[in-house]
Amino acid sequence: MAGWRGYAAAAAGAAMLAGGATWAAKGWRLGERIALLERDQERGRANANAVALGRLTIDLQTISEAARRAAADASALPGRIGIISRALKDAIPLPAGCRPDDLRVRSLTDAVRAANDTAAGQPTGSAVPGASRPAAAP
Fold first, then answer.
1. Dihedrals φ, ψ of 16, to 5°?
2. What is the model's pTM?
3. CA 44, CA 50: separation in Å to the nearest integer?
4. Closest among 81, 59, 57, 77 to 118, alpha carbons compared
5. Which stretches in the chain have pLDDT values below 70?
6. Residue 1 confidence (pLDDT)
7. CA–CA gap between residue 134 and residue 126 (Å, rounded)
8. What does the pLDDT read at residue 121?
């Protein structure tokens, strides 16, 4: 191949070789970029999973502590129910058509409130520390 056709064929071959090399280099760069993006996504997922696991651990500890408190309160519940039952049995029955006095209503209300607080896992007593109820009128 002599003349311009030889040079043209050589130029075409060189262009094809350069194009192939460029295409391969761009492919490698793109592959590397995709790998970096995937790595960043995986790190983000790992961080999100670590946060979720931390929250789950805290929630499980909270549930475990609540279960321990409930188990401790459950042992006191039968005694408190017994006190309420005795108070109801010892209460003097009212005649038909008679309304209970304030002291009786307050006593029964306190007993029901104590039972509800115990069942809800709350300490019994006043909502305000040191608060006392007014004495019932005679």
1. -65, -40
2. 0.42
3. 10
4. 77
5. 1-2, 121-138
6. 56
7. 13
8. 65
Q: What is the 3-state secondary structure (H, E, C) of the chain?
A: CCCHHHHHHHHHHHHHHHHHHHHHHHHHHHHHHHHHHHHHHHHHHHHHHHHHHHHHHHHHHHHHHHHHHHHHHHHHHHHHHHHHHHHHHHCCCCCCCCCCCHHHHHHHHHHHHHHHHHHHCCCCCCCCCCCCCCCCCC
The residue length of the chain stands at 138
Token pair of 82 as six digits: 């017994």
Please report, to the nearest 10 degrees, the dihedral formed by the alpha carbons of residues 84, 90, 95, 99 taken in order.
-40
CA distance 89 to 66: 33
**Spatial distance between the Cα atoms of 105 and 108, rounded to a whole number of angstroms:** 5
